[in-house]
Write a structure and sequence with these properties.
The chain is an alpha/beta fold and about 450 residues long. The protein has 2 domains: about 160 residues, 3-Layer(aba) Sandwich (Rossmann fold), CATH 3.40.50; about 270 residues, Dihydrodipicolinate Reductase, domain 2, CATH 3.30.360. The protein has a 9-stranded mixed β-sheet. It has a 6-stranded parallel β-sheet with strand order 3-2-1-4-5-6, with helices on both faces. A two-stranded antiparallel ribbon has the order 9-10. β4, α6 and β5 form a beta-alpha-beta unit.
Length: about 450
């Protein structure tokens, strides 16, 4: 499919030029543009609606009106239009092509919940169309994409929230964990272990008919053109109703062509909190070593040699050398959550609990009353969307900004590169490149399929 190459960047800059260069920093450019005062509700649209797309839309009705929805699957689109109409008492417009949303002047912000390989293209084009952006994690498929998004956010001055909602939600457990570490309650940090679970291998997945209503070519988008594959057994539970084994739908995270496996799924949550606690939001590791791991297919020169089954790592133990001699372990073993260990104690935190002696000691020796707010940078928002909107109104970046997200996500991307090449990689956090390894550096970027390049 060939896309029209109208430059969103050119349209954005022409609009700025008409108002004068100072408009980039003016309130009229930074407020949610569809409402005339801070008390009015912003106008949103969601792009990508299956599973998490609906989750972030549903929790945002309290704060915003949704004028439009977009998805390449007409069945998913239709169901979510009905649910949105029921929730907000007004029917949103429905589009199969997200670019029609970006062309609308009445939409202030977009929420992006497509598979990962689409995030950067849509986010960059949305920013150049003058939209604030909330994008699900992981933000990118490659490290180079992260650098591009940073550049465009800085250039446009728009607000960009990454969907790492553990920074705001989960009953503040992760905020408490960060405060405990930064207030020295475990002494000098020595090790942080991020348990993020493993992945299931798949059987051989045959070529299958594309499901009715799904535009498979557009779903693939920037990724290489391949046949749709699926087995008949359906997934149940969260994300259910689609094939349990496929190269699309819920299973996209199991393929390096579209995602980064558990490393960029749960890793994007727990490595984020670990880096935040370590105050490593503007730096990175010096070395990433794959201690042990299992890939479900044969790899050669970092590329899978089999294309009819999942290819992301199923199990792993990654050692990450962090600043100040802190060892980070990312593992598929043990409880899902984060274990902080220091010279004076240890504690564990996940979405359901925070446990350990430093936590118990809070009964007799509580943290300062403002400890959580200092970690958060002010009063904690009602939820992650509320923080996004507060950022739009205040003309600032929200709690999950692109810069700190990309720094921690680089650890996850490097972990995958190290496993694919079966060797440690040394990282220069200033240059943001792999040291003395041209082959490994070749995995920092990717080529977009012709016709699906980013409109710059």
């Amino acid at each position: 499919m060939s896309l029209t190459r109208n430059s969103g960047r050119r349209r954005f800059l022409q609009g700025v030029s008409a108002a004068g260069a100072a408009a980039i920093l003016s309130p009229s450019m930074h407020r949610a543009m569809g409402y005339q005062s801070p008390n009015e509700r912003p106008v949103f649209a969601t792009i990508g609606l299956r599973n998490q797309g609906w989750e972030i839309t549903n929790k945002s009705f309290k704060f915003a009106d949704f004028a439009a929805l977009a998805d390449v699957d007409s069945n998913v689109l239709g169901i979510n239009v009905e649910k949105t109409e029921k929730a907000q008492k007004k029917k949103p417009d429905a589009y199969s092509d997200y670019r029609k949303i970006l062309d609308r002047k009445d939409i202030d912000a977009v929420m992006i919940a497509t598979p990962d390989h689409w995030h950067t293209k849509i986010a960059v084009e949305a920013l150049y169309a003058g939209k604030h952006v909330y994008c699900e994690k992981p933000l990118t498929l490659t490290i180079a994409e992260g650098k591009l998004i940073e550049k465009v956010v800085k250039e446009t001055g728009l607000t960009f929230q990454v969907g790492t909602m553990q920074r705001t939600e989960s009953d503040l457990r992760f905020l408490q964990a960060v405060a405990l570490v930064q207030h020295g309650r475990i002494g000098t940090v020595q090790r942080v272990t991020c348990g993020i679970n493993g992945m299931e291998a798949s059987p051989e997945i045959p070529v299958a008919p594309v499901p009715s209503g799904l535009d498979w070519d557009f779903w693939l988008g920037p990724a290489p053109k391949v046949d749709y594959r699926a087995l008949p057994e359906l997934r149940v539970g969260y994300g259910g109703g689609v094939p349990l084994f496929s190269n699309g739908h819920y299973s996209f995270r199991n393929w390096h062509e579209y995602s980064g496996g558990k490393l960029t799924d749960w890793g994007a949550h727990h490595v984020d909190i670990a880096c935040w606690a370590l105050k490593a939001g503007n730096t990175g590791p010096s070395k990433v070593t794959p201690v042990e791991f299992s890939l479900p297919v044969e790899y050669k020169d970092g590329n899978p040699q089999v294309h009819d089954r999942y290819n992301a790592a199923t199990s792993f133990k990654i050692q990450v050398d962090m600043p100040n001699n802190v060892e980070m372990i990312i593992t598929s073993e043990g409880d899902n959550g984060i274990l902080f260990e220091g010279t004076e104690g240890r504690f564990f935190v996940n979405r359901g609990k925070i446990t350990g002696k430093p936590v118990e000691d809070l009964k007799e020796n509580p943290l300062p009353e403002d400890a959580i707010e200092k970690v958060y940078g002010g009063k904690v928002s009602e939820n992650h969307t509320a923080n996004f909107i507060e950022g739009i109104k205040a003309k600032k970046q929200p709690i999950s900004d692109v810069w700190t997200h990309n720094r921690m996500l680089e650890i996850c991307h490097l972990s995958n590169i190290a496993m694919r090449l079966n060797r440690a990689v040394r990282w220069d956090p200033l240059k943001r490149e792999i040291i003395d390894d041209a082959q490994a550096n070749s995995f920092l970027a990717r080529e977009y399929r012709k016709g699906f390049e980013i409109n710059m």
